[in-house]
Amino acid sequence: MGCAALGILCQANNPGCHMRRIILICTVVMLSTVGLLACRSGGSLEAAIDRTARLSDTSGIDTTEATVRIENNKFQDLVVYVITSGGMKQRIGMANGNTTTVLKIPDYVLVGSGELRFSLRPIGGGREETSDRIWVAGGDEVVLTLLP
Fold first, then answer.
1. Does the reported pTM lie above 0.85?
2. Residues sharing a CB contact under 8 Å with residue 147, sequence separation 6 or more, in sequence order
3. Are strands 67-72 and 141-146 parallel, antiparallel or unpaired?
4. For residue 72, what pLDDT is reported?
5. What gap in Å lies between CA 84 and CA 111, rounded to an integer?
6. Rounded CA separation 128/119 (Å)
7. Any residues with CB less than 8 A from the CB of 118 and at least 6 apart, and which?
8. Is the pLDDT higher at 71 or at 47?
9. Quick check: 117 and 131 in contact, CB under 8 A?
C-alpha cells in the first residue's frame, strides 16, 4: 500500500512520506485499541467503597454491618445479588429505578476473604451488570452507580 492509497500524495522514495504513513498507521491502531477497550468494559456500573462510615468497638473488631448503596439512574427496577469468591450467588434485595437504595450485605458472605462481586439484573429482561471484585469488611459501604 503506497502513500497515495492512504490519501497522502508523495514521491516513491521520499522518507517524509514513509514517516507520515507510519504515524498515520500508529494513530489508527491506537484509536482502534482505545475504542475496543471502551467497548470491552461495556458496562455502566461503577463501584466504590466508602470506608469513612466504618465504626469499631474498643476491641478493634468491627461490629457494624456492611451495606451496599445502589444509585440506580436507569428506569428499570433491578434485582440485586451478591456473589462470593466461592461463586455462591445470593439475592439480597431490589433497587427501584431512578432511586437510591441501601441494602444490608449478609454477615455470612463476609466470612473468609470478604472478596465479593455484585450482580444487578433488570426485572423483565435486559442486560445483567456485574461489578468487579471488591474486598468488603464489616462497616464498609459499597456504592454501586448505574449510569443511564
1. no
2. 44, 45, 46, 73, 74
3. parallel
4. 94
5. 10
6. 7
7. 47, 68, 80, 81, 82, 83, 130, 131, 134, 142, 144
8. 71
9. yes
